[in-house]
Structure formats: C-alpha cells, structure tokens
From TrEMBL:
<feature type="domain" description="Glycosyl transferase family 1">
    <location>
        <begin position="196"/>
        <end position="343"/>
    </location>
</feature>
<protein>
    <recommendedName>
        <fullName>Glycosyl transferase family 1 domain-containing protein</fullName>
    </recommendedName>
</protein>
<dbReference type="GO" id="GO:0009103">
    <property type="term" value="P:lipopolysaccharide biosynthetic process"/>
</dbReference>
<dbReference type="InterPro" id="IPR001296">
    <property type="entry name" value="Glyco_trans_1"/>
</dbReference>
<keyword id="KW-0808">Transferase</keyword>
<dbReference type="GO" id="GO:0016757">
    <property type="term" value="F:glycosyltransferase activity"/>
</dbReference>
<dbReference type="Pfam" id="PF00534">
    <property type="entry name" value="Glycos_transf_1"/>
</dbReference>
Length: 367
C-alpha cells in the first residue's frame, strides 16, 4: 500500500504528541518493509530533524516538506475544508491525518485521536485549541474510515462524546522507546542540575490539565525537609504555577530537557508521580517504569488502564490523596521496590513493532 502520514506535529518538543510522532516515524522506518510511506511535513519556521530526513531518504519512502504555517492549514482544511491533500502528496491508498488538521481528500482517510480533553475537561484547554479541535472533529466524523486511538478509555470517549460508531475506532497502544543511561551519565546530569539529595520526579508541560499546582501543594503539606520535588516540563499557559509561586526552595523547575538527561532523572529518582487529571495515554508513566522507577499516578482516564497493577493509584482531584501517595512512597521501601519490579514487566507491553503491525493490518483489511 501507499500510505500518507502527516508528521508536522513532531516539531513541538516536550509534548506527548511530538514524542509520539518521533516514535511512530522510527517504528515505520524500522519495522515496515512492505508498504511505501509518504511523509507530509509542514511548518513556517521549524525544520524537520536532519537525522530523520536522512533515514527516510535511505528507505523507499518519500518526504514532502512545505513552508506552510499551522494556522493557515487549519483555516484552509478545518474551517474552509478546501484544497485536497492529493495536491501535496499525490494519489495514495490512504492518508493518515495529524491531530491538528483534517484535509479533504478523495483517498481513504484514517486519523489518530490521542485524547478528547478539550471536550472532557474544556476548562483546562486553551480556547484556540478547543476551536481547532471542534472544527477538525466535524470532518473526522464525516470522512474518516478508520480512527486509531491510544487507549480503551479514549475509545469510549470518542464513541460517547463524538457519537462515532465503535466499529471504526481501533485501540493501538503506542510504543515506548527510551534508552537506559550509564551510571556516569546519571551522575553528570545530577551535577548539572545541582541535585544533591533524594528527589521525587514528575514530567509534564505546565498547563492546568497536568495538575502540577495540586502536586506542589500536596508536597508542601508533606513537609519532608531533606527531599526535592523535580518538575520537568516547559511553561504552558498555566500562569498560576511557576518557580516564583511555588513558595518553597524544595521544588526544582527544570523546563524542557533532552531525552538523554530525562532518562537519567527517571533512573535516579526516589519515585515518579504523575497527577494529571486526564490523559489519552501518558508516556512519562511507561517511560519511568521502563527505567525502573516506582510509579504513582492518577486513577483517571487511560492512566489507570495502562498502569493498573504496576503503579500506586490516587485521586488527583483530592490534595489529601496526592499527599497520601507521596507519604507512602517516601517512607515505604518495600512498596517502592515492588512497584519497580512490576513496572519493568508492565512496560514491555508497549512496543512500536506491535503498533506498526496493528496499524498496517487494520489499513489492509479496510482498504
């Protein structure tokens, strides 16, 4: 088959969508030798990673690169719904759209929906994102033959909130690929960030849905002196949560950091906590498990689904519940050790080979 894929979202470093797209491309290039892929990339100022560009060139696939801003494409494709995507990538068997724009096409279309947070928790999502997604989903409902999603939880949301037939929606758990660091790399990373005491780690863009403010409040109430809470994630539109407003030197904000350094923090943290209100998948949870960190996370949305049996679950809407999770994992070595072992086993379920095999099988059956 000839399959088109929009990879434009890969440029938003530090987001789950970018991580997903990078992994998907690598998975295709590594595991699919049967189909021909046509990668579509569009951005006004950002450029595609030269290494990925080189890898695509070494295979029998093609890359179409355009200098078009996402706001323009959103207006043309989501609002006006003009200009068929064939004009940019040619006539193919399938075109798989991104989670930002939905182009018109005479080809069969598939799409990937990571979550419906803009409908489930609209108050935590920027108004521009809500408007864009509403327009996009209007066309997804009308035109997509197949919808891939990251969890059973999101499949249920798609069916209920968008009124889409479940027969069109296929759950495909993303792969998680993170390289274990050496002890020397871990030591240098801790020195770089001046981490010289035990620390609890969380990862996520600073936006309301991630509930970083709730975690900070629970950590302050815990009142453990010789310990840090390390927060990795770029500043989003949640302006109420920041280093200045945390009110304690025991909270360390690191902004976005490269994967190599992040892997060092996963490996060396006392444990990992992820208090998000809602996730379509939750990459950091599986990444932490893969590198041997004990995990505590929310009992909501997909987070319970992907980590149940291998994590300590809590109610993210209750500060007292978050505090209880923190207290338990800070003080109980046996529980941390048990969760580490269970997490390593659980993380093996998420591979890009499985993802690519499942995706191409569904596209073949519905071709």
């Amino acid at each position: 088959m000839k399959i088109g894929l929009d990879i434009s979202q890969m440029v938003y470093e530090g987001t789950g969508v970018s991580r997903f797209v990078h992994g998907l491309i690598q998975g295709i290039l590594t595991h699919d030798n049967q189909n021909e892929w046509f990668f579509f990339f569009s951005s006004l100022r950002q450029r595609i990673d030269p290494k990925i560009k080189q890898l695509i060139g070494q295979k029998h696939h093609r890359l179409f690169e355009y200098k078009l801003p996402p706001t323009t494409l959103s207006f043309v494709w989501n609002t006006m719904h003009r200009m068929k995507v064939e004009k940019l990538v040619g006539n193919l068997d399938w075109f798989i759209s991104s989670d930002w724009t939905e182009p018109p096409s005479n080809m069969k279309k598939a799409t990937i929906i990571h979550d419906l947070v803009y409908l489930r928790y609209p108050e935590t999502v920027h108004s521009m994102i809500r408007k864009t997604q509403n327009r996009r989903m209007h066309w997804v409902k009308k035109e997509s033959t197949v919808i891939f999603t990251d969890s059973q939880s999101t499949r249920k949301d798609i069916s209920e909130l968008l009124c889409i037939d479940k027969q069109k929606i296929f759950v495909n758990y993303p792969g998680v690929d993170i390289q274990p660091p050496t002890d020397d790399m871990v030591k240098k990373t801790q020195e770089m960030f001046h981490i010289n005491k035990p620390f609890i780690l969380t990862v996520g863009k600073i936006e309301p849905r991630k509930n970083i403010g709730g975690l900070i409040e629970a950590f302050k109430q815990l009142n453990v002196k010789n310990m840090l809470l390390v927060i990795v994630g770029s500043q989003g539109w949640d302006k109420t949560t920041s280093k200045k407003q945390s009110g304690t030197e025991r909270v360390l904000f690191l902004d976005y950091i490269a994967d190599v350094k992040l892997s060092c923090l996963y490996k060396s943290c006392l444990f990992f906590i992820y208090p998000s209100f809602y996730e379509g998948f939750g990459y950091p949870v599986i990444e932490a498990m893969r590198l041997g960190a004990a995990v505590a996370t929310s009992n909501t949305s997909s987070l319970k689904e992907i980590s149940d049996g291998a994590s300590y679950l809590f109610n993210p809407h209750k500060t007292s519940d978050i505090k209880k999770a923190l207290s338990l994992l800070v003080t109980n070595y046996d529980i941390r050790n048990k969760l580490k072992k269970q997490g390593i086993i659980k993380s093996q379920d998420f591979s890009w080979k499985k993802y690519i095999d499942n995706m191409t099988q569904v596209l073949t059956v519905h071709h």
